[in-house]
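Re-running Helix-turn-helix transcriptional regulator to confirm reproducibility after the cluster update. Everything else is unchanged from the original entry.
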Amino acid sequence: MIDPIVQVIANRRKLAKLTRQQVAEIAGMSLKTYQRIERGESDMKISQYRSIVRALHLTDLDIALDVKNIQPVTNADLAAAARLLSPDAQAMLVRFIMHVTK
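Result of re-run:
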């Protein structure tokens, strides 16, 4: 059975419309090594994991959420939730978002 993290990586690669060869090149590993990882034939070193995640422009959180099958929050989701807040709470939320994105 293939590790769930590897399944997520393979799914994200396909969603990004990248080939195994492309990810391997960007991640700085041989195609054969990447193929073995993705097929579950070889355990991934942490350095390889980091390189692959960077190559796919992902974060550890993206991987963890996908493993847990938690769908990402969209802008529309956030806007809909914010509309349920009081005007004061909406203003506080905007100030918070502006603060953490500096």
